[in-house]
Amino acid sequence: MQDYAAIPDARFQTFDEKSDPAQVAPRLATLRSTLAGLNIDGFLIPRTDVHQGEYVPDCDARLAYLTGFTGSAGMAVVTTDLAALFVDSRYTLQAPAQTDTALVSIHDTTSTSPGDWMAQNLPSGSRIGFDPWLHTPGRLASIREPMERAGIELIPVANPVDTIWADRPAPPQGPLEVLGDNRTGKSTTEKLAELRAAMAKEDAGAVVLTLPESLCWLFNIRGRDVPHNPFVLGFAIVPADGSPTVFLAENKLTEENRSALSGTAELVGKDGFEAALADLAKQGRAVWFDPETAPVQVKSVLSNGARLIEKRDPVLLPKARKNEVELAGMREAHKLDGIALAKFLAWFDEAAPRGGLTEIDIVKMLEAYRREEQTAVDVSFETISGSGPNGAIVHYRVSEKTNRTLSPGELMLVDSGAQYLSGTTDITRTMATGPITAQQKDHFTRVLKGMIAISRARFPKGTNGAQIDILARQFLWQVGLTFNHGTGHGVGAFLSVHEGPAGISPRYTVPFEPGMVLSNEPGYYLEGQYGIRIENLVIVQESEVAPGYLDFETLTLAPIDRRLIATDMLEAAERDWLDAYHARVAREIGPHLDESTRRWLDQATAPL
């Protein structure tokens, strides 16, 4: 095992402090100085870019630039004398630590929406600006409704944040890669035929795609435009007849790329997208777009003559139903990841009790083990490495400023994933580093029982994630506890680690279908002390024992810390599941390890 005194540097992620509360005051003042010139009293700053993605390029991180908040979801409202930051329950601890709370009030969106806040705090007659490329019709409607009742108007304007951002990073210049059918399992021609069949049912003359993952999946392309996701940022218009048009950054409009996509799509600069929408409107075409993911500006332009078909992006569901080639790739990726995780967990088990190990050390070492596999091209998100009390911050990101030394005896939560050429992984493990309290065992075992309940679930076709979410929470609810995040999200195949439209939480009502890959990750977080989360990925599959029913195949292959389990709290069926899972991990991962690590794995996966 490697000595943790000589840990390799990370290549896929950095630990720079991305927020500076001291910068909030001058930036707010500069922004406010521009409002009068736009004849507005305030401005909305969402976390999203024009593609509404969870991950945005540095040049589009406007919310982080202005407020310091770097979470994956949120919105700020800045007026001439007030500023408010709205985040969900995942970020109620992170947001106050990253911004200037003397100037910016923090609000949990589960209890206070931006629209309601403005209705309560701004005078009637106020004019609030918004960038129509950064909001969807659906989200904007929910904001506008309470504002209109209060006599407050929303006004589309050119984005003033862009005008004050003097050192704004350049747009991404990553390459474009065209994947072969051997990796995608289905050609673009086949995918377009299926899309057009769906269009015919809606009598749609064209479909407008604005989500990068839909663009990448449909045209079998990948890129490096977004951190940790193999995305090409662009748009597409697919007509019912004729060649689709893909709108990309100018640097990607090469002859090589045109040749690779010839016969499937025409490449045009992104600047031509709005004009193409205007042409569709002028022709009076029936145009399908997703009001929950497309920018307001798309709807505004199309409304000048087109017949609007406002429905969910028609690529999302076919993309979520992985074909056999994609599933084989995902299984391969999780096997490769399991090998890296076994090496990492064995190293951690030896190193952590000795003391001196920092959160950044842990991230670097895990990444180093993953990089031993040549097909690992990135992490799938910035690793969450939370020791002790930091583990209770659900989406904690370690930086040089927050880096904490793990004390022996504390719990350690590591949530991580990788992008392999074959597929995408996401796994969370909570590890012991010394003596364990009865309370820690109780909490861990309740979380584990919930994870096993999802893993063992069998349900009729038509069931959705909202219906089974309770299975993961029931054992915590029995003692008045819960967790404030979803139990599971969809995962792409060498695409985004977070994808829709299915998942496991009260908000996911899309029925499960075979081939969907989901996370299964209940948790519990005791603020100021520790966090617990256990996460595996699963595939929805046809049940072999109950016709007409579905169940899950577990993808993830890594030990669950047996020392944290109160075995007397497990039912016989739960013990049997865990023993069988661990036996499978040892069988599939063990032969790829050196003798020392294999011995560790044998012990870590021994029957309860």
From TrEMBL:
Domain (Peptidase M24 C-terminal) ranges: 548-608
Pfam families xrefs: Creatinase_N, Creatinase_N_2, Peptidase_M24, Peptidase_M24_C
Name of this chain's protein: Aminopeptidase P family protein
Keywords: Aminopeptidase, Hydrolase, Metal-binding, Protease
Xref: Gene3D superfamilies: Creatinase/methionine aminopeptidase superfamily, Creatinase/prolidase N-terminal domain
Family: Belongs to the peptidase M24B family.
Example GO molecular function: aminopeptidase activity
Keyword check for Protease: yes
Creatinase N-terminal domain boundaries: 27-163
Domain Peptidase M24: from-to ranges: 329-542
InterPro entries: Creatin/AminoP/Spt16_N (IPR029149), Creatinase/aminopeptidase-like (IPR036005), Creatinase_N (IPR000587), Pept_M24 (IPR000994), Pept_M24B (IPR033740), Peptidase_M24_C (IPR032416), X-Pro_aminopeptidase_P (IPR050422)
EC number annotated for this UniProt entry: 3.4.11.-
Superkingdom of origin organism: Bacteria
